[in-house]
Design brief:
The complex is a heterodimer of chains A (466) and B (327). With 466 residues, chain A is of the alpha/beta class. Chain A folds into 3 domains: 2-41 and 149-311, NADH-ubiquinone oxidoreductase 51kDa subunit (Rossmann fold); 61-146 and 314-387, no CATH class; 403-464, no CATH class. Chain A contains 15 helices and 19 strands. In chain A, a hairpin with a 6-residue loop joins strand 9 (113-122) and strand 10. The relative contact order of chain A is 0.14. Residues 1-22 of chain A have low confidence and may be disordered. Chain B has 2 domains: 9-195, no CATH class; 205-307, no CATH class. The longest helix of chain B has 24 residues, at 36-59. The model of chain B is unreliable at 167-182 and 314-327 (pLDDT under 50). At the A-B interface, loops of A face helix 1 of B. Chain A: Part of a membrane-bound complex that couples electron transfer with translocation of ions across the membrane. Chain A: Residues 388-418, 428-457 form the 4Fe-4S ferredoxin-type domain.
Chain lengths: 466, 327
């Protein structure tokens, strides 16, 4: 594997000179590109209506907690931290309330108050109820005494810090960052994902615009600690302000951090595609970025890591986009465990709205319950989403129009995969590389017969899993 | 409201409606040249396709309203009407519709599952079984049906009047009306090209199929010693343009990859020319399309072997044993 990485490093030096945006290539160069595609380009994807201007104009606003009842989720998927507080116990902001073993990030109180109980609650982006610490906020929002800790000086210390500060991937997957850092065996590339290719979402955009210095500082720190030679930020070309802000911050900090444009094409932020666009390396299905010498982090994760490293501040809040049918769309910095119903009031959501979408319209899901709370991985709330999203229609029959093949960024054949999945033909599913599917939903949303392709593939993946 | 920025229609019904609309210019021009018989035949074909489709959906226990809402019967009826020769009796139209909808489409499991083009199956069956009754049909060179009134056409279609003999008829009316002009231009072809190009721009059909078809047929003509004018004129004969833009492009029965579609179009073009040159039938399009349809799975497999995804090795298709994986 190491020889492969070395080769790749040599190769990526070449396209450094031509950091041009894909759309700006002249016509004849695009013709040539069809014959000999660049190692950094990928085929397919969708041009989506952005709806970003709805919420990207105003700065990130803080949210006051007041005397609400918060439910701070302890669980994410199969990873569940053990609650270490008792009902009736008084906790302060930043105090540890859930402890995990070696690979479960710790959970912290996002405000001060009294623990009511440890029980089940709906997190905004999980279909089932999860374990949570239910906390009655006292409205003081009082911080715990934070020890004056310096930035970790060894990778091992950094891994421990990330775990104890509860850092997880904030892009949506929620993978513990500590495991990612521990798994990265001498990476030579640090790629920061600021693509935010989903429509409506602007939280990463605002974060990059407003907190560019902190992002650059953290990226620099990570690169020097882990011995990474090249750091790149990937940002979709529809966010010129974020790119300018980061470039200015990088210039001021005199670093070698590169700000690279990504094509404004969904799903440019999908991990294999982002890595390919930024480095030309191919992330084969079933392998981790660490295997090809890449450490890939989302910008929001990087920011949270920076707070943990330099300020010993655990992950207790996140930037969330409130958008769609509401009076005050924008981005808010919301404490974890904050109820969605309160956010509806803050945003002035249209009471006539039927559907609230959590996450983007492509990868997200409808709000499971009106009483759900914000978890670490909820990035966006789209109120009255039925006005913006295509209505669900009954599935028809596949007419083999092959639009799904055209748009699949992973060069799969969704129509054949779908028929194999319907037949439960597991051998064919494996031959057709179902494992490479990134579940971006491009095929489902382009299908004229409204076949539930992505949902079927998700289901088949769980069936195939041993 | 759709999220996707794309001119292509995003629902199956819109797609089918668009195909029907794009068929109209060619049909109108054809009716202008050939008279009311074209409209009557279209009416019968659409009606029968609708009837058979509804009946079959009901027999198969499907939701009839939902099944009809995709408008695939409309497209099938319109295409079949234009594929069948003019002035065929009604029972033959019914037989062709039956073969297309019942045997081909629903016999293979419904929309999207048939390997053969339904309209071509309908035409093929009556072309093989009733060859003597069909030919000579009115050709582009002699649009003598223009003089027939709707009443006369109906009598012919319902077989209540003796069959019109081409020679007698030509002697009686064509020459007097001065329409027996051997170079009557194939006006409807222009309509089909226009409709096909609109569909191609909207990405409803894949334009590489008609292009490959036209190119291969013209090139074969050139290679066998015809002049360039003859080769191009050859493309306007019979239903070539109609087939190229509206029948060969049926997504259900054409290959899935661009390379495969080019090969598919080329095969149809070549076979058509061979049948026209050496075969029994004046217009071999129907058999060329059916033969190429049968080759689609093989073409798809071939294309799958050539293509490889950008990550990792090529898909482990068991074509050459284990050797394929190591490449």
């Amino acid at each position: 594997m190491s020889s492969h990485s070395l080769q790749s490093v040599e190769r990526i030096q070449l396209p450094l000179r031509a950091q041009r945006q894909p759309q700006q290539k002249p016509f004849w160069r695009r013709l040539l590109a069809i014959a000999a595609p660049s190692p950094r380009s990928w085929h397919g994807g969708l041009k989506l209506r952005g709806y970003k201007q709805l919420s990207n104009a105003t700065p990130i606003a803080p949210v006051a907690v007041g005397h609400l009842q918060l439910a701070i989720p302890l669980q994410r998927g199969r990873r569940c931290a053990q609650a270490c507080v008792e009902p009736g116990q008084y906790v302060r902001k930043g105090e540890v309330i859930g402890i995990g073993d070696g690979n479960i990030p710790w959970v912290h109180a996002s405000t001060s108050g009294t623990v009511a109980q440890v029980g089940l609650a709906f997190a905004a982006d999980s279909a089932e109820q999860v374990m949570a610490v239910i906390l009655n906020a006292d409205g003081l929002d009082e911080w715990i005494e934070r020890p004056v800790l310096g930035a970790p000086q060894t990778p091992e210390a950094l891994v421990e810090r990330a775990l104890q500060m509860g850092i997880v991937g904030l892009g949506g997957a929620g993978f513990p960052t500590a495991l990612k850092l521990a798994g990265a065996q001498q990476p030579d590339l640090l790629l920061i994902n600021g693509a935010e290719c989903e429509p409506f979402l602007t939280c990463d955009d605002r974060l990059m615009r407003e907190r560019a210095e902190a992002l650059i500082e953290t990226a620099d720190y990570l690169a020097s600690l882990l011995g990474i030679s090249l750091t790149r930020f990937g940002i979709e070309t529809n966010k010129p302000e974020a790119m300018t802000a980061l470039r200015a911050a990088a210039r001021q900090a005199r670093t070698r951090v590169e700000i690279c444009p990504l094509p404004a094409r969904y799903p440019a932020g999908g991990q294999p595609l982002m890595i390919k666009s930024l480095s030309g390396r191919n992330l084969a299905p079933g392998t981790l970025p660490a295997d090809i010498g890449v450490l890939a982090l989302n910008v929001a994760t990087l920011y949270a890591l920076g707070r943990a490293v330099f300020h010993a501040e655990p992950l207790i809040s996140r930037v969330l986009t409130l958008t769609g049918g509401c009076e005050h769309p924008g981005n808010v910095e919301v404490p974890l465990g904050y109820p969605v119903s309160e956010l509806r009031k803050i945003a002035g959501a249209d009471p006539a709205g039927q559907l609230t979408q959590v996450g983007g319209p492509m990868m997200g899901q409808p709000l499971p319950d009106p009483a759900a709370v914000i978890s670490k991985t909820s990035s966006c709330l789209i109120f009255a989403a039925e006005r913006y999203l295509p209505a669900a229609e009954p599935a028809g029959s596949c007419i083999r129009c092959t639009r799904c093949v055209d748009v699949c960024p992973m060069s799969l054949r969704p129509l054949d995969l779908y028929s194999a999945a319907e037949r439960k033909d597991h051998a064919t599913l494996q031959t057709l590389r179902l494992d490479a599917c990134i579940e971006c939903g491009s095929c489902s949303s382009t299908c004229p017969s409204n076949l539930p392709l992505r949902e079927r593939f998700r289901q088949s993946k769980t069936e195939l899993r041993p | 409201m759709s999220l996707i920025h794309s001119p292509a229609p995003q629902r199956l019904r819109t797609l089918m409606l668009l195909v029907s609309l794009c068929l109209l210019p060619g049909t109108v021009l054809y009716a202008w040249q050939f008279g009311v018989v074209v409209w009557l035949q279209t009416f019968w074909c659409v009606l029968l396709a609708l009837g058979f489709e509804a009946g079959l959906l009901r027999l198969r226990g499907r939701n009839v309203r939902e099944g009809l809402s995709d408008l695939s019967w409309l497209v099938l009826g319109l295409i079949l009407a234009r594929a069948l020769p003019l002035l065929v009796p009604l029972w033959m139209i019914a037989l062709a519709s039956f073969a297309a909808v019942v045997l081909c489409k629903h016999g293979s499991g419904g929309l999207g599952r048939n390997r053969l083009n339904p309209a071509m199956v309908g035409l093929g069956i009556i072309a093989i079984c009733f060859y003597q009754l069909l030919y000579p049909a009115p050709s582009n060179h002699a649009p003598w049906t223009l003089a027939l009134s709707a009443e006369q056409v109906l009598l012919q279609q319902l077989q209540l009047a003796p069959r019109l003999a081409f020679d007698a008829f030509a002697g009686a009316t064509q020459l007097t009306l001065d329409q027996f002009n051997p170079i009557t231009p194939n006006l409807s072809g222009l309509g089909y090209i226009a409709g096909g190009l609109v569909l191609g721009v909207l990405k409803v059909i894949r334009i590489e199929i008609p292009l490959a078809m036209l190119a291969s047929a013209a090139l074969l003509c050139l290679a066998t010693g015809h002049s360039p004018q003859e080769s191009l004129y050859n493309l306007s004969l019979g239903g070539f343009l109609f087939t190229a833009f509206f029948i060969a492009t049926d997504p259900v029965t054409s290959p899935d990859t661009p390379a495969g579609r080019v090969l598919f179009g080329a095969i149809i073009g070549l076979l058509t020319e061979l049948i026209r040159e050496f075969g029994l039938y004046a217009d071999g399009l129907c058999f060329a399309v059916l033969a190429a349809n049968l080759l689609v799975p093989q073409i798809d497999r071939l294309a799958l072997c050539i293509q490889r995804p950008w990550y990792g090795e090529r898909p482990a298709l068991k074509l050459h044993g284990t050797g394929a994986v190591s490449g």
